Amino acid sequence: MGFLDNSTTTVDAILTLKGRELLSEGKGLGIVKFALSDEEIDYTLYDVTHPNGTDSYGSVIENMNLLEASPNRETFNSFLVKNSVAGKTLNVGQLSLSALVSEDPISIKPNTKNGQVEDYVFTISNTNIIRFEKTPLAKTKTAREVNLITQAISQSATATVRVVGVTSGLTAIISVQVNADAGSDTPPDGPQETLTVSPGGSGYGGG
Amino acid sequence: MSVFRIIQEDDVINDKSIVTSGLFQDGVSSITNFFTSSVQSGSTGDYSLDVFRYSPATNASASVQFGVAYGHYAGSGSKGGVGVVGERPSKAVHSQFNQLINPAQTTRFVFGSHTAEDIFVIAMNRARIREQMEPGGWELHLSGSNAGPGGTKIKLIDDSATNKGGNDARRNFSPEYNIVSGTLVGGRNVATQATDEGAAGTYGKFYPSIGVLVLNVHRLEQDLTDKSGGHFKSGSNADGGNNDAFVELLQNASYFSAKRQEEITSTHYFVRAKAGDFNATTNESYYTESVAGVKRIVPGLLNDPKTYITTVGMYNDSNELIAIAKLSKPIIKSKSREALIKVKLDF
Fold this sequence. Notes:
The structure holds 2 protein chains of 2 kinds.
Chain A: E1 9-15, H1 17-24, E2 33-37, H2 59-62, E3 80-81, E4 89-91, E5 96-100, E6 105-108, E7 111-113, E8 120-124, E9 130-132, E10 140-143, E11 146-150, E12 157-165, E13 171-178
Parallel strand pairs in A: 5-13
Antiparallel strand pairs in A: 4-7, 6-11, 8-10, 8-12, 9-11, 12-13
Chain B: E1 5-6, E2 12-22, E3 30-31, H1 38-44, E4 49-52, E5 64-72, H2 89-101, E6 110-111, E7 114-115, E8 118-124, H3 126-129, E9 132-133, E10 139-143, E11 153-158, E12 177-183, E13 189-192, E14 204-207, E15 212-216, H4 217-223, H5 242-253, E16 256-257, E17 259-273, E18 280-281, E19 287-289, E20 295-297, E21 306-315, E22 321-334, E23 339-346
Antiparallel strand pairs in B: 2-17, 3-16, 4-5, 5-8, 6-7, 8-15, 9-17, 10-11, 10-16, 11-12, 12-13, 12-14, 14-15, 17-23, 19-20, 21-22
């Protein structure tokens, strides 16, 4: 007779830059929800021909060592969800925008093909390069669609906008390259002004 | 259903714990070598001497562990005086710590029944103590030149083991403990209680919150009798070299142990992945995609879906990622398996 395994997996969390920023401003972290991700997993490693049988199909994946957490993250590349997204795709239009100049407008209207209508979490990697039109200091916004404005920067640079379907978890990354503005002295890699968005930021035609 | 799951109120547990660790460089709790810097002693050494674990002359990583300083209420043991050229560093040091620790209108430190003219101060490096020194977690040895068998070696600790809560005298910092003879070997054993000390007073006072030990010079000299004329000089308008003399006592005895103490506030979030949930993923490698753009789950996972949890993201109400927890190995998740992950967030 053996002992039952009553262990719980315990992991240490680190604050992201956003978490540190909130803490430094004396605001509570306000953690109210979680999401699970399977980043770093390549499911093609699941080997259904493994000679040791079904229990070993996933042994390559299950024995890998994962990377440590990095604070410089705003979202994940993939999420665990309730239902398969087979047959569903996230359409955000162009995935790469280049040679934009300052104050060019960008409109992102995602659409979840074969899925239900949903809101999306839009996350800008660098607000020195592009900003939301109506909430210029926010890095994250939850809405059905957003409008962005490119910024005047002293050197040509690229930022990304990650779009995550709130229901589907489908993720798309849009790359935005903005040319240098001769009249600007704002370096794209300088400190970014940010703002915490109040809850209930979902909306239509926002930005 | 959203990719986000609400954390229930009873899935969040807050607790506070005290963490202690070695105070000295490299995280050790005791050191046996004591070095000073000729650069520092040549500039501000009249006021205080920085003490290192490694020699700063030969080891670039040597960092200051603590400082020692001699203070005299009238400025004796250092050059200068009222209306006399000289900076009177011993007066400055005494006034500095008197102002810092004692209430207003106090002019001298009182150790038991002795009102002291002069003091020695050990001030721990702030970065080394972080929050505070651990009461009952330090032991300091001092010795004159004849420290061998039969020689005098003073072993000092604080009396926090018996003096719960500290002294009740009014001070600018609390708690205040007495420095007494004793050792931490085999537990906190006080050899002589502060109340049993004689006219020379107690060995000193200890202020854990600021990492400062104030020593009664008069009491030290009573034990350290091996030097003609005493170990410390308190002549008027004359440099006594007392800081160097005190470092010699440390070097002779070769032992100082101390631990620091921090209060860690932790929040534990219990993250539950129930049997029927999280059995699918948006990970592109989970699917094959035809030329026509039709996504299908890869063979082998289609009939018996399995996913792997590698990361837990903690979000606020605005869907902003606030904290990340990474697992050391992927956890398998399927319809027949639940996962309970305790995410610990320290402040």
